[in-house]
């Protein structure tokens, strides 16, 4: 079926709302005539659940789904011959210019579920680029996720004559302004940095035709929704919206009902439960001294290990302590600029060092294969952070082990985390030299150290080769990761944007080394 804007609106579930307005005030949410969701169970959540339970569509190729021929060829060139389940569900409605609310697990291919419709729509209606005026925006919560989306789309956009650029905090804003002035089609952005550029009149969103919100729930967790609203209000009222979210809490449901018009609902069931892909363990310890000794014993294991802590200062301190104990370690957290974070993750991915210490926020930016152990050195604040941290292991079909350290008085807290995360864990009281500690310390295959890839800052803002991870090391401050800071533009919201909050990117899945080679988010 050829690409078309008048495809019958038959697929997907629906939630009430007014028809899409063809005009209206540019720069405003589509609120008029919008019924309020009824009390009781969230109807949006119910619609997504129903969508996941719906029979799977027939297997179709990208061409059969209506993807333009040039894009089909570009996908094949990247080793992508067959769409993933979420893509099969989303693409027909997204290509028909419908608003879409989607949900899919990490590694399901959701990056291209929204990326392909963006590129297809712009390629089907080519227009001359206007300085600082993109035709599509993709909002993501973190720098690393922005990098991942950029790296997935760039190889596909170039054959179509489209230009994709990334604007995030931690990199030169002047270079990003220059890229926008030269004219771009798609901007992949973190909200705070895009607000900075709007305030400097370097980004004009009045001609945006399609907008994507990826990981809307994480944006809500990080306090981004006011910035997201401001950005969406700056786009035309009839802009097509694609919103991807794992959950609809934190105000995401209000965002859906205010900005999406008669959306199609698409979701896929999780194919692997966290409890079956990972072994969850609790090591109960007598206090901080034993905690560090046990961590040091585990850290010398031959395989890659990630330790998670709750503060930036704590990440730097633990990395130093583990290094002094004989396990070379590096830290990654929001106080580092993008190049520092990238260098740290590149080194970790290359196998030297084998130990990475990260904060909660940075958890979403770590996309490294062959991590078979995650240690919650400090317990996370909630079950979602527990799952995001833990998700750095058991990737690409592999198994992994997750160990949580519990000090006296934390038993009830760790039980609540596991209950809310719907995982079962063993719980053992251990000490340095304990048989279970030695078992973990001796586990895993020895890492083969590889050469670290050479990168440049310029590659981060578009046109670079496809790469998998981002990171850095060094620095540190005592401010708890997640506390707000003021940006240079006076906008104070969010992580990883224009000097405001900073952090890592959502696990979107590491791609297996074998075909099919799809970006796994």
Automatic annotation (TrEMBL):
Superkingdom of origin: Bacteria
Positions of the UniProt region annotated as Disordered: 1-46, 451-521
Helicase C-terminal domain: residues covered: 288-441
GO molecular function: helicase activity
Segments carrying motif Q motif: 60-88
Ranges where the DEAD-box RNA helicase Q domain occurs: 60-88
Start-end of Low complexity biased regions: 10-21, 508-521
Helicase ATP-binding domain residues: 91-266
SMART domains reported for this sequence: DEXDc, HELICc
Compositionally biased residues, Gly residues: 489-507
Bilayer-crossing regions: none
Keywords: ATP-binding, Helicase, Hydrolase, Nucleotide-binding
Family per similarity comment: Belongs to the DEAD box helicase family.
Name of the molecule in the record: Superfamily II DNA/RNA helicase
Organism: Kineosporia succinea
